[in-house]
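Pilot study result, target chain (389 residues):
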Amino acid sequence: MITLALAGKPNCGKTTFFRAATMAHAEIANYPFTTIDANFGVAYFRAECPCRNLSLPCKKCVGGARFIPVNMIDVAGLVPDAHKGRGLGNQFLDNLRQADAIIHIVDASGATDSEGNPVEPGSHNPLDDVAFLRYEMNMWVYGILDKHWARLQRQAQTKTHSVHTGIAEVFAGLGISPEDVRDAEVSAGIDLVHADEDGLKSFCREIVEISKPMVAIGNKVDQAPAGLLATLEQSGMIFASAAGELALRNAANAGMVTYLPGDPTFSINREDELSQAQKAGLEKIAAVMNRFGGTGVQQAINHTVRELLGLIVVYPVEDENKFSDSRGEVLPDAFLLKKGSTPRDLAYQVHTDIGKGFLYAIDARTKMRVKDTHELSDGDIIRIVSTAK
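Predicted structure:
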């Protein structure tokens, strides 16, 4: 299962976003470092279930929406010079080792400074926070490389040792391969063996881009001054109201509204039971959703999974005629796979033994056998035929 990490400075609404996305309990308070130990939960990628187009009686989706689990980590708030150990920086950065991608929660209202302290709304530029997180990540990675650089250079002088392999070993915890190192070297436009400090920093910036892709989400959009919001919109920032999403999910759980995460609107079920304050709150949430097509929380998760990580959804089945498993359950599982994945890749995702025993695959829609080199498409329904049971 993929892992997404929520990063950001204190008081940006990161933990509210985490609670809204996972409905897990986590402390929320208006002071720095509310989150000291990382919070772990499960969020969901929302996809359109194939059951509707195929008129199948699927029990795994809700109204045609399939929710596929992803791990989510809410890590400690980041402050300037975190890579030097300031604040909870080392703990924060180490937690990010587990992440496949980073959702950077930014205070779009500009009402907190670079350390998360309250200031006049609009007086702090959220775009500075975007650059700041990337800088801290880059310098953290550079610090790791710098500790090993003298040894790596000595080893590179021998014919039996590759500098690309050596660097990949140093960054093993980040899931970096020698091929990633070569790609970063080319992107940075340097020769690693003879690189100076600036060259190595450029290389580390590229490594971060490859291993920890990031997207900035402008939270607290409902509190953003109009001028600042216009500037952020021009930058292409994605917006969210985590507090609005959390309120909607709580109201939906209580039966007060009908709402699925990612819906562009909601409907009120028992308006006569709502207080004036609750009605006013829902009106504000509706205004945000009307402008941005939703609260932005589910949209941020979907964007990260679909666009940043380039994942597709594939549905393995055991009976291609009934689109079911051996017990008759329709579309029982959904897997997130990299674009370009093959049926053999899917087989290994289902189970290592099934992957090892892979014989061939069948496209359940066409009933045709597909090659093990066939590139899977989003929404494919595939039967794997394997020697393993």
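One observation from the pilot: The chain has three domains: 3-119+214-303, 135-205, 312-386. A full batch analysis is planned for the follow-on phase.
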